[in-house]
């Protein structure tokens, strides 16, 4: 039996242009996500001059800014960061669901990784845990996913439709 062919991303061939699109709402949590993402990118060799940060009001506005970034800046990857914390109204479901669905559609439409680091949590405590305390830093994790996807896409053949 022949060994299976496997292709996967690494964290070696990750230099490129990265744009971090950040929702300012809940900035006391989101600022830590940005720090984690930037730290992760630079630790893996991405030149700080190739990291751009775009601020939007909140998670709801992320998809439009991500779309413009993909259209105009043509980065190797986008990292979307924000925090949606459940309140006493159904607003949470609309914002979190709409943001996440749109981000996924954009990466497929533009054939460019859009790492989703938007926290959708029940409480401020959970948000803080995911922004660098007990549950790690989801900004770091999003940056790692973005870099791995950049490397993976470079390793995959490009089809005729590209």
UniProtKB/TrEMBL annotation:
In which residues is (2S)-2-hydroxy-3-oxobutyl phosphate bound? 88-89, 130
A Gene Ontology biological process in which this protein takes part is: riboflavin biosynthetic process
Q: InterPro entries annotated for this entry?
A: LS, LS/RS, LS/RS_sf
What does the record give as its pathway? Cofactor biosynthesis; riboflavin biosynthesis; riboflavin from 2-hydroxy-3-oxobutyl phosphate and 5-amino-6-(D-ribitylamino)uracil: step 1/2
Q: Where is the active site?
A: 91 (proton donor)
GO molecular function: any one?
6,7-dimethyl-8-ribityllumazine synthase activity
Could you tell me the keywords of this UniProt record?
Riboflavin biosynthesis, Transferase
Catalytic class of the enzyme: transferase
Judging by the UniProt lineage, the source's domain of life is Bacteria
Q: What is its EC number?
A: 2.5.1.78
Q: Which reaction does it catalyse?
A: (2S)-2-hydroxy-3-oxobutyl phosphate + 5-amino-6-(D-ribitylamino)uracil = 6,7-dimethyl-8-(1-D-ribityl)lumazine + phosphate + 2 H2O + H(+)
Please describe the quaternary structure of this protein.
Forms an icosahedral capsid composed of 60 subunits, arranged as a dodecamer of pentamers.
**NCBIfam families assigned:** lumazine-synth, PRK00061.1-4
What job does the chain carry out?
Answer: Catalyzes the formation of 6,7-dimethyl-8-ribityllumazine by condensation of 5-amino-6-(D-ribitylamino)uracil with 3,4-dihydroxy-2-butanone 4-phosphate. This is the penultimate step in the biosynthesis of riboflavin.
Q: Its family?
A: Belongs to the DMRL synthase family.
Name by which UniProt lists this protein: 6,7-dimethyl-8-ribityllumazine synthase
List the source organism.
Answer: Vreelandella aquamarina
């Amino acid at each position: 039996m022949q060994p299976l062919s496997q292709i996967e991303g690494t964290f070696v061939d990750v230099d490129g242009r990265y744009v971090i699109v950040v929702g300012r709402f809940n900035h006391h949590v989101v600022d830590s996500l940005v720090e984690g993402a930037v730290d992760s990118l630079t630790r893996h060799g991405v030149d700080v001059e190739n990291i751009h940060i775009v601020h939007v009001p909140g998670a709801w506005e992320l998809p439009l800014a991500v779309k413009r970034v993909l259209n105009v800046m043509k980065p190797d990857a986008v990292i979307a960061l924000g925090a949606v914390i459940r309140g006493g109204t159904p607003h949470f479901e609309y914002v979190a669901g709409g943001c996440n669905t749109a981000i996924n559609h954009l990466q497929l439409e533009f054939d460019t990784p859009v790492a989703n680091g938007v926290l959708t949590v029940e409480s401020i405590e959970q948000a803080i845990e995911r922004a660098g305390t007990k549950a790690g830093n989801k900004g770091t994790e999003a940056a790692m996913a973005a870099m791995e996807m950049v490397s993976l896409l470079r390793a995959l053949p490009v089809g005729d439709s590209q």
